[in-house]
Description:
heterodimer; A: 109 residues; mainly beta; six-stranded mixed sheet; five-stranded antiparallel sheet; 11 strands; B: 113 residues; seven-stranded mixed sheet
Amino acid sequence: GQQVMQIPQYQHVQEGEDFTTYCNSSTTLSNIQWYKQRPGGHPVFLIQLVKSGEVKKQKRLTFQFGEAKKNSSLHITATQTTDVGTYFCAANTGNQFYFGTGTSLTVIP
Amino acid sequence: DGGITQSPKYLFRKEGQNVTLSCEQNLNHDAMYWYRQDPGQGLRLIYYSQIVNDFQKGDIAEGYSVSREKKESFPLTVTSAQKNPTAFYLCASSGSGTALELFFGSGTQLSVL
């Protein structure tokens, strides 16, 4: 199936520091989605990117889709303790969703 | 409230036993999915169904079976052939059109006794 690599696997930051997770594919993606899973919870949809070079913002979160549509990133500015959780990217091929391995974010108060 | 309901929240399986995880949705979604999540890992697709009475194997279907007799329901059976069933199982659904986001249930934690 589709291979989607995500780095880093874990990230610990002090509250107020920035955080970035990266998602990479060896093939061109039609779109990329991002999900957040709180500890003990289930993944919740954050956003979908479709266009080459697309940038979308949600408050302190900035999502980017690469020009070649093979990579994407999620950047959080000035992390807060509410940002704790695992962030997954997912490639939608139309019939299936292929998830990255996720980045677990810990925010130290 | 519209959503996806998974039950039970916790399930224990004995050796050689088949167990069935329930997944019901009232979102009127055509597509439904089962994912397995192991600690520190991503979500791996077990089975998916795009329409009633039809389903497809995902990347790790061995040892699992599903049915899709109703649009609202997509139960997953973990058979005795699945030798390492301990994991967190997530059911999801998606609609049609351009915004094909996944809506997840709250999950079932399956453990082996």
